[in-house]
Amino acid sequence: MDSKLTGVRAVVTGASSGIGEAAARALAAEGATVVLLARRGDRLRAIVEDIRAGGGAAHAQQVDVTDAAAVADAFTRIADDLAGIDVLINNAGISINDLAADADLADWHTMVDVNLNGVLHASHAALPHLVAAAQGSRGVADLITVSSASGRRVPKPTSNVYAATKHAVGAFCEALRQELGPQQVRVGLIEPGFVATEMTSNHDFGELDALEASDIAETIIFMITRHRRCGINEVLTRATGQVS
Ligand SMILES: NC(=O)c1ccc[n+]([C@@H]2O[C@H](COP(=O)([O-])OP(=O)(O)OC[C@H]3O[C@@H](n4cnc5c(N)ncnc54)[C@H](OP(=O)(O)O)[C@@H]3O)[C@@H](O)[C@H]2O)c1
């Protein structure tokens, strides 16, 4: 087993499927101890068992990222159990696309709660641990947020609130980068185009060879395995054939 991340303690939100699951598996394969966080506990436990069966170190935390108190408790527990946190991957997210005229306001609130408030809750809870870990032997800590190509530009009218939440996390992460970089916490944003996951399972890609979750996981590993002086702050990645 390769071991670029041996000794590194990582938390991945939204790790029960898709990009988060792939990121958790990739982190463990590189030697990190990974905590997988999401609502579906059965899915998390099955992935954790599988990672352990392959010789990796993983733990499950069943938490809803919209619940600020539960997130704070979970990060306190994780930091106690692992004696710190070096890496946070903010990945949990949902996408509900309707024209504004047809939209249910509750769906808009849910997207803001998961995609924006969820990132705020996990980042706030992880921040003191990341700052402390950056003073350790690795000399750096990492906060990576999975945004979207829709965080750069609005691809279509139905992307309204989804794109708004992703633009917002981009702004938040840029401010975090400015604040935390001098403390050796790298803040990075990854902005994928179409990725074949549960989120896009109803999407007709046509002839498009969409990105796989593993493509994004590999990019995350690249971002956090650079020399400590090198921060990759923003990565926009689309399927080669994606036009929008
Ligand atoms: N797929 C794409 O084309 C694409 C493109 C650009 C960006 N993204 C972004 O990539 C990220 C991952 O999405 P994906 O494509 O991998 O979709 P996915 O397979 O549906 O994964 C979403 C993950 O978020 C978790 N989640 C949702 N609500 C949550 C909550 N309230 N609390 C905790 N966890 C929650 C889900 O777990 P539970 O349901 O078990 O809680 C699941 O693990 C999202 O931020 C998404 O916006 C995806």
In CATH, the architecture is 3-Layer(aba) Sandwich
Spans of at least 5 consecutive residues with low confidence: none
Name every ligand kind in the structure.
NADP nicotinamide-adenine-dinucleotide phosphate
Query: What's the arrangement of strands in the largest beta sheet?
Result: 3-2-1-4-5-6-9
Main beta sheet strand tally, sense and closure:
7 strands, parallel
Instruction: Characterize the overall form.
Output: globular
* CATH hierarchy, class: Alpha Beta
Number of E strands: 9
- Secondary-structure element order, N to C: EHEHEHEHEHEEEHE
Q: Would you give the CATH topology? A: Rossmann fold
Instruction: Give the domain tally.
Output: 1
Structural class: alpha/beta
Portion of residues within helices: 40-55%
| Amino- and carboxy-terminal Cα gap | 38 Å
Which percent band covers the strand fraction?
Answer: 15-25%
Number of helices: 6
Radius of gyration: 17 Å
**Looking at this structure, what is the CATH superfamily?**
NAD(P)-binding Rossmann-like Domain
